[in-house]
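Input.
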Amino acid sequence: MFKMNCLNPIAQVGLDLLTDEYQLTDDFAEANGVLVRSADMHSLELPPRLEAIARAGAGVNNIPLDKCAEKGIVVFNTPGANANGVKELVIAALLLASRDIVGGINWVRANADHPELATMVEKHKGQFSGSEIKGKKLGVIGLGAVGLLVANIGIKLDMEVYGYDPYISVDGAWRLSKHIKHSTSLEEIYRECDFISLHTPLTEGTKGMLNSEAFAQMKAGVKILNFARDLLVNEDHMIEALGRGKVGCYVTDFPNPKVAGVDWVIAIPHLGASTVESEENCAVMAVQQLMDYLENGNIKNSVNYPDCQMGVCNHPGRIAVHHRNIPNMLGQLTAVLGQDNYNIANLTNKSKGQWAYTMIDVETPLSPEITAKIKGIQGVVMVRIIK
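Output.
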């Protein structure tokens, strides 16, 4: 029996996938698997029984990835499950940035009780006018699950779209509209585009990437949309650029006291993936990934261990080993199995940075004693008998 703990409310459509082999528990300390959305796990003591964490969403800043890897705990996320919800909000952001819709709505609300409101509208509406997005240049930085959809919808909105992503996947490249201009540098995006939409992961290399140096290369009045991560933007530099009109509008899904009240900032309360459909899609993907890992040992969409697939085990035994990516590990694993007369039927080994994962199917049932023997190999952090 696998025990599952939810640190946040998870859509019921995902939880309904759990079979009789699973039991929901409110006790984090006894969980084999954890489902989480935004709860901060950095201060939590990770229990010995914990084998996997699934984040119902893309960002994993709330999970201690290195600490989990060192304990052999696989962390999953759900890339693409909420992509359409974010894409639709970006479309709204394009319109909010191009025309002062928010200012106009606020003006109407402030004058709602004025008896001459209808007449006043004709006199004052000019102060909220803007530009159409048709024919404007949209730069999309990052062509992952969301960025790809944004770039393609930009073409359908009759915009001229520039896309930049030096790490685009083969599948992503196939799905990208042929009408999108493939930029080979950020400088081209900065120089050419009227709108710039951020969809890149937050790394040491991308942190604060939109700063005074980047703004200096942009068109005057450029509109910037941030539905990726707040720390991609140097907010002090952004406020300065807004103040002098270099940036015409900044739409962010990550409000904080520094930017929320600044003129020409439209701060949205992190609504990118806040749709019923997105939450359900994320829940389903997260639960499916957890179940496949706990039952079969397969890893898909992990952020701290390599993806590794061997399907359902059709042999009498399967063992899964989390270990450091060091020389002679496979030799040691197979030697230990050979000493106990296990004949290997199938084997796969994948690595990701300093960590690796090995699954081995054998032709006779595995005894509990083999776990201790393999765990004794230097560099091994977790051993699981799947079958």
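The chain has a mean pLDDT of 96.
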